[in-house]
Amino acid sequence: MTATDRVTAAATVIAGAALPDGMRADIVLRGETIAQVMPAGTVDADDASLDHAVRVDASGWVALPGLVDLHTHLREPGGEDAETVRSGSRAAAAGGFTAVHAMANTFPVQDTAGVVEQVLRLGEEAGYVDVRPVGAVSVGLAGERLAELAAMARSAAAVRVFSDDGKAVADPVLMRRALEYVKTFDGVVAQHAQEPRLTEGSQMHEGVVSAELGLTGWPAAAEESIIARDVLLAGHVGSRLHVCHVSTRGSVEILRWAKSRGIDVTAEVTPHHLALTDESVRGYDPRFKVNPPLRSADDVEAVRAALADGTIDVVATDHAPHPPEAKDCEWAAAAFGMTGLETALAVVHELMVVSGRMTWADVARTMSTRPAAIGRLTGHGCPIAPGEPASITLFDPAERWTVRPDALETASPNTPWVGRELVGRVQWTWLRGRPTVADGKVRR
Q1: Among the four residues 341, 343, 382, 441, which has the most C-beta atoms within 10 Å?
Q2: Is there a contact between 113 and 155 (Cβ–Cβ < 8 Å)?
Q3: Is the domain of 197 the same as that of 248?
């Protein structure tokens, strides 16, 4: 069967995959929909309607609802030297994602209906994932006055997530007004929790390692103080708050308290904050320079436990591509950020599933169902069941592969996993029945 046949076949049979609940199943896709889900080995080979079907032997693999990322930087418009919507979408598909939320810190900033609709169109033209633009909270990310929130919500992009990510909404009055405003159309403010006055000139986590290296420290309190303020504001106005890239034990404790009080707050953690500590900075390798910074081993243990027990709701990549010159320089001059779309599932698998802290059902919840619900994204995060959209990821938990930047789909090489062997890799991704990744390769 040719590559064209694979794309245009009337049906696809995924044979013997393990579903998130552990059941081994045969899954039949027809058009954009899941037609059948049956116990493994029960698809009738003599069914004439399947004569020309693509057949994928998924024995030993895991089938997950297509992954959804709440926090992706695609850089376009304005940052095409780092990434484009097309290259970032290809990276997302390679990582098993079927939808990503594209952050607003582009140039021009995604603070008007026109710009978010431009990003939406770029995603549709690329065709690898559904790109959902995130609207800026403030005009130009300046933190001074609200952006066109309602206009972006009513636009073709139907924006429901708003964030000044990269900068905190530091003014408490502006944050309160934003929470009140987005409540009127069931939106959510995704806050980058960083008190700017406490992090002026900061280079890494404030602790023993920063003292030994002589780098200006970034205190945990800078994150925790903003989260504490914002959960109180969200509770006061009865609005939804989402906390981006949680990284400290104190932040976890505040979130746990807020949830116990019934405050409508959700939170995310990145794969790199689950995996890496500030010890990585000892070599002054700018690949490990990220915002918020890599924290202590105690903080890492806290966020892992919080993800496992549901205090942290989702894994989000904070995929942050940069051109080579922004990272191939001395530490102080380097940009903050790491890429992560293509490695996220393997990192979560190794840290949380292999360790026994999470099941595949938990992975589906934290990387598909919950992020889709938080973003109010329809057609994603759905169970693998008859009648549901055929957006599915097939993951081989046994394949070992070494990360090489030149072999990744992202346009940027700033991955922290260079040269590291990861366990588990995406083999197929379908977006509404159309394969965007087949046999481990992204379609051209």
Answers
A1: 341
A2: yes
A3: yes
| Beta strands per DSSP E along 280-433 | 314-315, 392-402, 421-431
Q: Residue 230 pLDDT more than 80? A: yes
Q: CA 412 to CA 323: how far, in whole Å?
A: 6
CATH number of the domain at 437, please. 2.30.40.10
pLDDT tens-place string over residues 280-300: 999 999 999 999 999 999 999
Asked whether the predicted pLDDT for residue 4 surpasses 50, the reply is: no
Intra-chain end-to-end CA distance of the chain, in Å: 17
Residue 52: predicted pLDDT: 81
The total of other beta-carbon atoms located within 10 Å of residue 363's CB is 22
Pairing of strands 188-191, 204-205: unpaired
pLDDT at position 330 over 70: yes
- Both 9 and 116 in a single domain? no
Same domain flag for 227 and 338: yes
| Residue 56 sits in the same domain as residue 80 | no
What value does the mean pLDDT take over residues 146-156? 98
Are residues 305 and 438 located together in one domain of the fold?
no
Q: Which of 274, 277, 255, 275 is nearest to 266 (CA)?
A: 255
Contact assessment for residue 218 and residue 299, using Cβ atoms and an 8 Å cutoff: no
Buried b (16+ CB within 10 A) or exposed e, 94-113: bbbbbbbbbbbbbeebbbbb
3-state secondary structure of 45: coil
- The answer to whether residues 59 and 79 belong to one domain is no
Q: What is the pLDDT of residue 46?
A: 66
pTM of the shown model: 0.96
pLDDT at 188: 98
Q: State CA 140 to chain mean position distance.
A: 23
Question: Which pLDDT belongs to residue 3?
Answer: 37
Q: 318 an active-site residue?
A: yes
Q: Tell me which residue range forms the domain holding 294.
A: 66-374
Do residues 229 and 266 touch, judged by C-beta distance below 8 A?
no
| Mean pLDDT, residues 51-69 | 94
Residue 23 inside a domain? The answer is yes
The residue annotated as part of the active site, out of 318, 362, 396, 406, is 318
State the total domains in the chain. 2
Rounded to the nearest 10°, the torsion over CA 312, 413, 131, 392 is -70
Residue 385 pLDDT exceeds 90:
yes
Which residues make Cβ contacts (< 8 Å) with residue 285, sequence separation at least 6? Answer: none
> 352 in helix, strand or coil?
helix
Residues above pLDDT 70, as percent of the chain: 97
Amino acid at 194: Q
Residue where the block lists tokens 């900075």? 281
Give strand pairing partners of 146.
138
